[in-house]
Design a protein that fits this description.
Order of helices and strands: HEHEEEHEEEEEHEEHEEEHEHH
GO molecular function: CoA-transferase activity
CATH architecture: 3-Layer(aba) Sandwich
InterPro entries: CoA_trans_fam_I, NagB/RpiA_transferase-like
Mean pLDDT: 90
Number of helices: 8
Low-confidence stretches: none
Shape: globular
Family: Belongs to the 3-oxoacid CoA-transferase subunit B family.
Structural class: alpha/beta
Keywords: Transferase
Protein name: Acyl CoA:acetate/3-ketoacid CoA transferase, beta subunit
Largest sheet: 10 strands, mixed
Helix content: 25-40%
Number of domains: 1
Strand order of the largest sheet: 4-3-2-1-5-10-12-13-14-15
Radius of gyration: 17 Å
Number of strands: 15
CATH topology: Glutaconate Coenzyme A-transferase
């Protein structure tokens, strides 16, 4: 399968984020994570619950349940029964994430999305991140504004019960978020460990790096013919 694109590798890596999650609410934000969650649901993780973002639980275009967002906030989010995949404008060595502002928060050089649900997500259930362009502008020594809560801040605040930072998938590879630092788990085919290191400001653990698996023929068929026949994925990751 030499024609597999980098975007398709990223979709499979995002699908793998949900392996073993079972019957929880998957909340992927963005095209590549959404394709990954749907691919996982259609193949190796059939019990995943996928929402339309408002009130319905859906599967392959069919409505299979009703769960308004207020109920999500009351009964799902605070009890560790959700796995969200968010974006990140900055991530630092401690696992803190920023989607709010670049520069001093009192007078930012660039205003971004704002805090949104990042603090509540990261202290209440499993959280992963998707970064379409792995660079030193994203992987920084210290984020300008803390939105997603890292390990040290969660520990100091006593918010560790459901604090579960999991993975970062990028266009270059997959990294594990850990209290003792960030570890490079795999590089996508065609990417070297040096490529990742050179595009990361801080030191990462590269002691045991594998190669991200390619999609199976069945996964590739589902992705190309069913989930994304217009190849929108390749516009996000070239």
């Amino acid at each position: 399968m030499s024609d597999v694109t980098r975007a398709e590798m990223a979709v499979v890596a995002c699908a793998e984020l949900f392996r073993g999650d079972g019957e929880i609410l998957a909340s992927p934000m963005g095209l590549i994570p959404s394709l990954g969650a749907r691919l996982a649901r259609m193949t190796f993780e059939p019990d995943l619950l996928l929402s339309d973002g408002e009130a319905f639980l859906v599967a392959d275009g069919r409505v299979e349940g009703w769960q308004p967002f207020r109920k999500v906030l009351d009964t799902v989010v605070p009890h560790g029964k959700r796995h969200v995949v968010m974006g990140a404008n900055q991530i630092d060595r401690h696992g803190n994430q920023n989607i709010s502002a670049i520069g001093a928060h009192s007078r930012p050089a660039k205003q971004l999305l704002g805090m949104r649900g990042a603090p509540g997500n990261t202290v209440n259930h499993r959280t992963s991140y998707w970064v379409p362009r792995h660079s030193r502008r994203v992987f920084v020594d210290e984020v300008d504004t803390v939105c997603g809560v890292g390990f040290e801040r969660a520990r100091k605040a006593g918010g560790e019960r459901f604090h579960d930072l999991h993975r970062v998938v990028t266009n270059l590879g997959v990294l594990a978020l850990r209290p003792d630092g960030i570890r490079l788990l795999s590089v996508h085919p065609g990417v070297s460990v040096d490529d990742v290191v050179e595009n990361t400001t801080f030191e990462i653990d590269t002691s045991d790096v594998t190669v991200t698996r390619l999609p199976t023929p069945d996964e590739l068929h589902l992705l190309r013919e069913v989930l994304d026949p217009e190849s929108l994925r390749d516009k996000e990751v070239r």
